[in-house]
Here is the input.
Amino acid sequence: MTNLEIGLWSFPVLLALIFVRVPIGLSMLIVGVLGNYFVRGSFTPILAQFKDLSFSTFSAYSLSIIPLFLLMGQFAALGGMSQSLFKAAATWLGHRKGGVAMAAVGACAGFGAICGSSLATAATMGQVALPELKRYGYSGALATGTLAAGGTLGILIPPSVILVIYAILAEQNIAKLFVAAFVPGILAAIGYMIAISIYVRLKPDSAGSRPRASYRERFAALMGVWPVLMVFFLVVGGIYFGWFTPTEAAAIGAVGTGVIALLNGGLTRKTFIEAILVTASATAMIFLIVFGANVYNAFLALSQLPQEAAAFVTAQGFNPWLVLFIILAFYMVFGCVMDSLSMILLTIPIFFPIVSALDFGLPPAEFGLWFGILVLIVVEVGLITPPVGMNLFIINNMAKGTSMLETYKGVLPFVISDVIRVVILTAFPVISLFVVRWLF
Amino acid sequence: MLASIGKWVEGLVKAVAILGGIVLSAIALMTAVSIAGRALIDFGLRPVPGDFELVEAGTAFVVTAFLPWCQLRRGHASVSILTDIFGNRANLVIDLLADLLLLIAAIVMTWRHFYGLLDKQAYGETTFILQFPLWWAYAFCMVGLITWVIAGLWSVIADIGLLKRNQIRVEDAGAIH
Here is the structure.
């Protein structure tokens, strides 16, 4: 077998392992080690690498941002910021048709600005907004669909753990990626609000109404969100303006949200330990995947497969847009069953060389940003597409008395909104890029 | 007997994870202090020397300290769309095999890491700024890694027990990211 064939054979083996429920990171690790053995004909080189690989992966400065962002998200959840965000959004939007659901989306967007994780955003905002939505007569389908979709704003609006990983894999600038993600993230929130307003007009009995709040109440509620704004400006602003590295920003964010939670009385010994344990599980999960992907991708590079694949696709003279369409469609389909982070770690080392070799009329630096944003969105759609969207499970589990089928139906308008947004952002790269061009 | 071992393992794993969390919080605090020092350099303050070296060594410990907890809580991301249609027994067998593979991975990683530690000690490699021996950082990681092996061993034993009794398996909560 040639090295290239070994590389190709690794895919079916890897997929078989993943689909019999072997943890994804472990599957990549196993196939990577075995593939390395077949290419080199011996276990010695890989075992020698393993002497330092654990430490070098786990101590990588660029990756240290991940546990810090996760801890920050947990502290943010404890600090009562989700309540004040929702309250502010509800006083401004609540009286409209479907307004409380729109407020939930707005609050998710606000929380997404201080939390880099989708599931944490969905879970935190779900706790606050689900009871309120029920109180104002919103149907279970709309309520759960709204929050599952709103949760994805946690990762679409910077900071974002997935973007950090993409930046490392595709060798892109994290600050620029965060800037590029900002406008598409806001568009996502607006798109979801439009989806809600259409939904409640088609199904008027799915939403009740909330009395209009006076402007005095509105501004009072707005004052309550200043800690969120402060943390956001410090963290994301600090990265944008180059005051500190992304890791330092995440550390400041964790300390900032921790202090706010402490002042609000949300951070006690008990909740601190809970926050740590959730952070622990998520961190270890991500690092096992990163470790496995490191080993697997090193093996793929050894087999020459990514280079050959890129050369092959370019030589065929395929239409670049068709290739891009196929890749995005692939992410959407696989996203229905696979975890978004694993998908990115698994595919970017193969897809990125292929698409970078094609001409989309953009300079290489801008192409990397634009492609990253597109990939980020399509993998996030996977979190809310049936049957296995993680956000759907989390929210449905919190909403007692709403069947999974209702949640599936309720999230549909949001998925449609996502697909429309992907088409728009693909057709007009300038939407993702103009702020980057303006700032840098 | 077995139940008390299980309790002991869970207690150990939880303690190590909490220790990791405390170190993570300390990293965040130290970094914040360092940035404040850098910002106020005109007022005679200064950043923490070698702060990023501490972040790196600290994060490596944090991650290894978190691995056992994730293992015990079945927090690793996996795809269950196909296996959901299998019966309970088949899924118990899969759990056992997956945990066995994870245990092997943990053992190999710990074993090789230990040799890495010995190398670093033999060559007397130190960090660039603080000049502390790199093997210290490796040694801290051994704590987490050995706990991971213990957790992995316990998971396999627990899986065998479940399989013997053909107990209905419960899906643990996935991780949040």
The radius of gyration of chain A is 22 Å.
